[in-house]
TrEMBL record:
<feature type="transmembrane region" description="Helical">
    <location>
        <begin position="63"/>
        <end position="86"/>
    </location>
</feature>
<protein>
    <submittedName>
        <fullName>CD72 protein</fullName>
    </submittedName>
</protein>
<keyword id="KW-1133">Transmembrane helix</keyword>
<feature type="coiled-coil region">
    <location>
        <begin position="101"/>
        <end position="163"/>
    </location>
</feature>
<dbReference type="GO" id="GO:0005886">
    <property type="term" value="C:plasma membrane"/>
</dbReference>
<dbReference type="GO" id="GO:0004888">
    <property type="term" value="F:transmembrane signaling receptor activity"/>
</dbReference>
<keyword id="KW-0175">Coiled coil</keyword>
<dbReference type="InterPro" id="IPR016187">
    <property type="entry name" value="CTDL_fold"/>
</dbReference>
<dbReference type="InterPro" id="IPR016186">
    <property type="entry name" value="C-type_lectin-like/link_sf"/>
</dbReference>
<keyword id="KW-0472">Membrane</keyword>
<dbReference type="InterPro" id="IPR039689">
    <property type="entry name" value="CD72"/>
</dbReference>
<keyword id="KW-0812">Transmembrane</keyword>
Amino acid sequence: MAQSVVYADLKFAAASTLTAPTCPAAPDGDDSPYENVPLGPVPAVPSPGRWPRCWRVPVGLQAASLLLLLLLLVATVSLGACYWQVTRSLQDASRQHAAEQGRLAQEVSAQEQELEQTRLELAWATAELQRAWREGNSSQQQLAMLQEEMQKVQRELRASESTVSSLRACVNTDCCPSGWVLYRSKCLFISVEKKNWWQSCDDCREKSAQLLVQG
């Protein structure tokens, strides 16, 4: 059996407009063997031999990125320098603290020797006083002088004992508050924060201290 053939009248629009023109109406839609097929927009296809279009980064964005990287580098170097400076200051303070402890230990040893010498002098004065009493040859004036000398030696002994006790306390325990360092019999507070003159004075006043000025 023969198959029926249907013809389609296809009309293509110009490539520049990419729109289908309006087709005229058929004289008789039921009797015409032709059909008008409207065409939609034709998608743009890149021509052969051409590469897709590349996007370029704006020059301002590149400059801003380089500036940001430079600022980050400068900030990193500055933080490293500050860390090195603080570490060096702490190391110097630790060495000074160790030297101060050694000096205090020497002073304690010297004071102990002086205390022992004072005790010997007191023993000698007591022996002389007892001998003077036993012999009965000394006068009241000599006895008063010996008593006065003995009292003087006793006062020196008590002062030496007090000094030795305070020095021992400084060597065996920390004389300064937490966070302070001992330097030449003084407690120093080394601040790692950067402050101006007035802020430093106010900070020292709050800590009941005085601002140290290095010449």
